Amino acid sequence: MLEGTTMFTSRKIRAAGYLLIVITILGSIVPISAQSQVSAKSQEPLQSQKPLRFVIQPFQSEQKTRTNFQPLADYFQKLTGRKVNIVTYPNFISYWAETQKTGSYDISLDAAHFIDYRNKNKDFTVLAKQPGIISISLIVSEDNLVFDASELIGKKIATLGPPSIAAVRIYELFNNPVRQPSIIEVDNTGQAMSMLLSGKVDAAMIPTPLVSVQMAGEGGVAVVSTSDSIPGMAISVSPTVSSEIREKLLKGLLTADKSESGKKMLKQTKLNPFEKSSNKDYFGYSKMLDENELPAGQ
Q1: How far apart are CA 298 and CA 142, in angstroms?
Q2: pLDDT tens digits for 159-169?
């Protein structure tokens, strides 16, 4: 009788032991699963609140670019409720290398050939543009009597490096490989203008609006020739930018001249009121990059 009772008690202890093991295993699994779900959910708002990266083509120095366009970044931040960080590059070589990568930035303010490249290769979408058209001018000092670009063969010309629009236009002017000027690449248009005015170069390729500013101000320059025009700079966004954010940016850009914060931004950046635009307005301009046999994208 005692032996039977002992065996029964032993079986109950073993069963309780098995049950305890199962409970322990399940207990260790359930919290981990729940913790994973909580962790995933907690990361969602963090992802949606990541700063938006706003890049501007480097036609000015990095410091001037940040200073001049910070009001636009602040305006974007107010429109979207998201922090907006300006991304700059020291020259067009480094800018082009980064442009070819996927996911480098979310918003861009750029020239026609880069815009069309991103539209085709990175699935960007144009939202709004600066009104009118823009060209590049070949200029000399006002006391240097040059009437045709051919007179500058063998002379020093300061220009932004490839694949800037200025560099593209230089190649178009001097397409004979044995009759070339001496190209002096600079990091920004301010440097090109400074070198011309100080006599370090014989000519410079400068965006025509900046030439107009110089002529209306200090003067000292004369225009030799002006290139064909292209659409003005535009704001475009990457496919990672949500439709909600796109709509906020678009509405804010198109109505900037009607709100106090928008008017302040336009005044500080010296930008004109934006007008609605689309990818088709820039279609085909990326061929400028192909014509100059630039490195293939990554």
Answers
A1: 44
A2: 998 999 999 99
